[in-house]
Amino acid sequence: MCGIIGYVGRNAATPVLLGGLRRLEYRGYDSAGLTIQQAGGLRTLRAVGKVARLADKVRAEWVEAEVAAGHAGIAHTRWATHGAPTEANAHPHSDATGRIRLVHNGIIENYRHIRAKLEAKGHVFASETDTEALVRLIGEYHKGDLRQAVIAALRRVEGAYGIAVLSAAEPGVIVVARKGSPLVIGVGEGECLVASDPAALVAHTRRVIYLDDGDVARVTADSVDITDLDHAPIDREIAELTFEAGAVEKGGHAHFMLKEIHEQPETVGNALRGRLDLVNGTAVLSGMGATARELLDFQRVVMVGCGTSLHAGMVGEFALEELAAIHAEVQPAAEFRYRNPLVDGRDLVVAISQSGETADTLAAVREAKDKGAVVMGLVNVVGSAIARETGRGVYLHAGPEISVASTKAFTGQVAVLLLMALKFGRGRRLSGERGQALAAEIARLPKLIEAVLAQDAAIAAVAARMAGHDHAFFLGRGPMHPVALEGALKLKEISYVHAEGYHAAELKHGPIALLTPGMPVVVLANRSPVLDKVLGNAEECRARGARVIAVVTDGGPPVAVADDVIRIPDCDPLVATIPAAVALQLLAYHVARLRDCPIDQPRNLAKSGTVE
Ligand code: G6P
């Protein structure tokens, strides 16, 4: 989820690249760098922090005449996935000779293998990144033709990439390639640009070529030559950009929240990539650093987090108990840190946090460490405080979450918790057969989410019938109880509707007194062992005149009590928590839109709570 920009043409490349990076900064902002091609070779500058820091460095270290002389260059703004946000890990990365430089978005899954092979040949790596393995491999294959070397290397990598590469030996040439990570070429007059996102191009040209997966292009100031990985020529049409630059940053969506909701097939895919072992029905979570023996020895898993991350932990509690038969519990981090928690060396404490900076969660980590527990992080932001202090855990790879209301981080957290539960389960009591079935269900998640997103219009219609109400209930049982809490949280955060998430069976013990005719009650009534009970609870609401909105399993029996239905695809009840959560995110989004609320920056909220 980083940003790439490249330029070759009649103008000086440096100002174009810095301008492009500023437009891409919303995608990633922990470090940035650029490489310019000059008569004497390649010159690179990198800086930790925002693009402005890189611009300062360019002003301080590069003479103006040098800047003016570089007519080709590549640049990158990084959002760390492998390795902390340091200057050494910032892009562009270099091959062993220093004559090839590369910027990369995506994840090279087999980089450890490539790195080990190259190190055996004497390579000394300068960074912890997966990217450096790729550029060094390109260097190994380079015999004078950059594109050929890039193709040879790409044929040996697994994973996702959008890349732009420069060679000192080929002035005025940028080679780009994509697989699973977007790349677009801007075709101007006597100049071409390449970028991970059209947002970086619109200031220069509206004529663009979108690359497809498997495309490799050799780009000069006045030519674009595309082939596939077998060197066969490919013809791609030039398209015309019709949108405004501001809209592009949101990928054409009206809000970052909507963009992030729609990114979830990809982000959950990233969280799962390389981590599911379908054959053995288990998960590969190397960052946990726990052996099967250690998993057996834990007496308990205690999860801590705040807000949405706390709700993810509550789903994890069900998954761990059901699949791994281990005592699991979740506690608000703010509570855990002050209650003198009963944890010791036989307990695993998992700190769940999107930002990795939440003060209460960080304090809970320290408290758990002081008590001798084994502590892991389940974090989105690489190199964040919680990631550093836990030292081990699992990254979400969801990319930067800009909207204050968390969406893709939540589904990433639940996906990773399902993987953890699967791994624990197989280390403890889960049979191979059940493990395989569940791994196959988890692997379907990107498709399951897509099926929910495809119903956007239907969910918007349900939202239209809800938007006039100032109160709502969300009900669920089992693992859907935390999803109900999260659905209610989304609605109150962004639409200012007073929404209560409740255990469906608890409603009658008090809150049912609040029901008034027409009040929306969202009931999570998917296929599950407790469906009949949930439907009974929905009936109780209907009998008081409430308007029941049922989230049901597509193809399941009709739900007579429902005034409105939202369908999620049929899947395992634990796995169903993710598509159900996506449906409720869309519901909240549309209610907030119809109520004309400032969706990305709701009043009184902050993206992360760095104070108690
Ligand atoms: C803030 C945000 C919430 C978030 C919570 C925990 O309150 O508004 O959306 O869930 O912090 O943040 P974390 O980064 O630790 O997941």
Give an account of the 3D structure.
The protein has 612 residues and is α/β, with parallel strands linked by helices. The protein has three domains: 2-242, Glutamine Phosphoribosylpyrophosphate, subunit 1, domain 1 (4-Layer Sandwich); 253-443, Glucose-6-phosphate isomerase like protein, domain 1 (Rossmann fold); 445-612, Glucose-6-phosphate isomerase like protein, domain 1 (Rossmann fold), CATH 3.40.50.10490. Helices cover 37% and strands 24% of the residues. It is built from 21 helices and 27 strands. The strands form five sheets. It has an eight-stranded antiparallel sheet with strand order 3-2-4-1-10-9-11-15. A seven-stranded antiparallel sheet has the order 5-6-7-8-12-13-14. The structure holds 6-O-phosphono-alpha-D-glucopyranose. 6-O-phosphono-alpha-D-glucopyranose binds next to helix 11. 6-O-phosphono-alpha-D-glucopyranose is lined by residues 306-309, 353-355, 358, 361, 404, 406, 605-609.
